Amino acid sequence: MILTVCAYGHSRSVAAVRYFHGRNIDAIACGFQTAGAWFPVLCATATWIVIMDEDMMTVIPVAFRDKVRVCHVGRDRWSNPYNGELAALVKERLDVLFQEATT
């Protein structure tokens, strides 16, 4: 399972989950500010933790940072996981991550 992480789990991380689901990959979205005690549990069960801004590395428990992949789209300026600009940016960044993972 891939855990996608943004601040509140409503926009950027959901856009990333849509990308993964479109490729039949199990993924869930999470907000580090809203997940509470479940956040470390979700990090522990994830194969990859995809953070949507490189500055989020500090919120990932140290024990799980080796699972982190960065899909840097920056701060949320879309407020909508279906925004075309966001979807294109996520696709571009995650395509690169997949290419790096397979080479």
- Strands in their spatial order, largest beta sheet: 2-1-3-4
Q: Please report the total strand number as a whole number.
A: 4
The CATH topology turns out to be Rossmann fold
User: DSSP helix count?
Assistant: 3
What CATH architecture do you see?
3-Layer(aba) Sandwich
Roughly how many Å is the radius of gyration? 12 Å
Features:
103 residues, alpha/beta, Rossmann fold, globular
What is the structure about, briefly put?
This protein is α/β, with parallel strands linked by helices and 103 residues long. Helix content is 36%, strand content 17%. α1 crosses α3 (84-102).
Characterise the protein shown here.
With 103 residues, the protein is of the alpha/beta class. The protein has one domain (2-102): Response regulator (Rossmann fold, 3-Layer(aba) Sandwich). It contains 3 helices and 4 strands; from the N terminus they run βαβαββα. It has helices spanning 12-21, 38-45, 84-102, and strands spanning 2-6, 27-31, 48-51, 68-70. A 4-stranded parallel sheet has the order 2-1-3-4. The longest helix has 19 residues, at 84-102. The radius of gyration is 12 Å and the shape is globular.
